[in-house]
């Protein structure tokens, strides 16, 4: 990877939980089903066998992906931020656009981004534009809908 995979402790725990659930629960159960289906004879028309093998490949791919992401992860606890007056990883930021529409978002790792919940990935255009900003700073962002200017209204970090 060319850049670190920053992630919050909660985001890392979520990746780890998914990995363990797939590896310890789903995969062994699926292998058992495939073995049972293989014992039933003709595999060319055996739906359990065909679907099981396909699902096993999907699980193995996902396990490989999760393993790489966890290996490259750099867990950063936002509550330990040294400068709480500026926007850095883990900050919850309130911004206002030119029309005075306010929006609150949290800068998180790319693996835990969820726009519907206001969590923006660290490498998203909006997050990159906000990095290092202080209250009152104006930041211009190139978005698919065109350029927009945002003013930073508030910056907050979780408490330890």
TrEMBL record:
Q: Tell me, which GO biological process terms does this entry list?
A: DNA-templated transcription elongation; regulation of DNA-templated transcription elongation
| Protein name listed in UniProt | Transcription elongation factor GreB
| UniProt keyword list | DNA-binding, Elongation factor, Protein biosynthesis, Transcription, Transcription regulation
Q: Which organism is it from?
A: Sphingomonas jeddahensis
Keyword field contains Transcription: yes
Q: What does this protein do?
A: Necessary for efficient RNA polymerase transcription elongation past template-encoded arresting sites. The arresting sites in DNA have the property of trapping a certain fraction of elongating RNA polymerases that pass through, resulting in locked ternary complexes. Cleavage of the nascent transcript by cleavage factors such as GreA or GreB allows the resumption of elongation from the new 3'terminus. GreB releases sequences of up to 9 nucleotides in length.
Q: HAMAP family, alphabetically?
A: GreA_GreB, GreB
Which terms in the Gene Ontology molecular function aspect does this entry carry?
A: DNA binding; RNA polymerase binding; translation elongation factor activity
- Coiled-coil ranges from the UniProt annotation: none
Record domain Transcription elongation factor GreA/GreB N-terminal: where = 5-75
Q: Name one Pfam family in it.
A: GreA_GreB_N
Q: Which family does it belong to?
A: Belongs to the GreA/GreB family. GreB subfamily.
Residue intervals of the Transcription elongation factor GreA/GreB C-terminal domain: 85-157
> Mind telling me which InterPro entries this protein's record contains?
GreA/GreB_C_sf, Tscrpt_elong_fac_GreA/B, Tscrpt_elong_fac_GreA/B_C, Tscrpt_elong_fac_GreA/B_fam, Tscrpt_elong_fac_GreA/B_N, Tscrpt_elong_fac_GreA/B_N_sf, Tscrpt_elong_fac_GreB
